[in-house]
Amino acid sequence: MSRIESIAPSPEAVAESLAEQRYVADEGLATAIFLAIRLGKPLLLEGAPGVGKTEAAKVIARMLGSELVRLQCYEGIDAAHALYEWNYQRQLLAIRQAGEHEIDIYDDRFLIERPLLKVLRKPDASVLLVDEIDRSDHEFEALLLEFLSDFQITIPERGTLAAAARPVVILTSNRTRDLAEALRRRCVYHWIGYPDAEREARIIALRAGDVAEATARAVARAVRDIRARPLAKPPGISEAIEWANAATVLEKGGSPWPEAFRRAIGVLVKDEEDLAYLAPDFDKIVEDALS
């Protein structure tokens, strides 16, 4: 059993380790993480923005005592940003300084590591987060597919570099487009939905700084009600935590309940049309949540 496997010997142990890192995972997520680690397969986490996909990757890295190497995807991302680049200016300078002497301009001094190469060289000490893979185009997805298949990179001037072990890889997607079936087949898949009110209250109580348990429960109930409405940008878990914190700060500053919730709404709902849509019912939402 490897070092990483010994840290996560069962789904239950994974859930306990995540809880120690103040991340509340349900059985499905804990099992998916365990299987991804044990089978040496990438973990694909899909879900709406703000449900805790990226945070899960950060916590897994901390749980394993590994460095989190993040590759943030965006439209137009290419191999140079994901794999490696040559430092051309340094190469030119070295050639000038070498004069008549021979010099290898393709050694490590001139190689700039990007996230995939960095993880490839330290697979036991790194967790690779490929964040928002759905933002990249199909060409980049195909490039990534090759990496995830064999965990190796071919550098024409240096040959093929392969990882000594299979690194832990986590991909996240907000599902703004469908990912290739070939990519999905290589991954352990898990959909992260919004938590129910009880679990979200536990998350808020665990992660918010100085929020009373009753406040956490009220925020979770109100947020559940708000998410059930047809908003353009439903609030995520992080917004719910921030709302609980902000309302608590206002309450301690002299703004009574439920006025503190109303005044702090800007940290929960961040779209003008959504605010206008909620305005007629907001007092009732908070009143029901506090009852």
Helix content: 40-55%
The major beta sheet can be summarized as: 5 strands, parallel
Q: Point out poorly predicted stretches.
A: none
Number of domains: 2
| Count of helix runs | 14
H/E element sequence: HHHEHEHEHEHEHEEEHEHHHHH
The strand order across the widest sheet is: 2-5-8-1-9
Return the CATH class of the largest domain.
Alpha Beta
CATH architecture of the largest domain: 3-Layer(aba) Sandwich
Strand residues, percent: 5-15%
Anisotropy-based shape: elongated
Structural class: alpha/beta
Superfamily at the CATH H level of the largest domain? P-loop containing nucleotide triphosphate hydrolases
Rg for CA atoms: 23 Å
Number of strands: 9
The fold-level CATH name of the largest domain is: Rossmann fold
Mean pLDDT: 93
Ends distance: 51 Å
Care to describe what's here?
With 291 residues, the chain is α/β, with parallel strands linked by helices. The protein has 2 domains: 190 residues, Rossmann fold (3-Layer(aba) Sandwich); 94 residues. Helices cover 50% and strands 14% of the residues. Strands 2-5-8-1-9 form a 5-stranded parallel sheet, sandwiched between helices. A two-stranded antiparallel ribbon has the order 3-4. A hairpin with a 3-residue loop joins β6 and β7. α11 packs across α12. The longest helix is centred in the C-terminal third of the chain and has 19 residues. The N and C termini lie far apart (51 Å). The mean pLDDT is 93. InterPro entries: AAA+_ATPase, ATPase_dyneun-rel_AAA, CbbQ/NirQ/NorQ/GpvN, P-loop_NTPase.
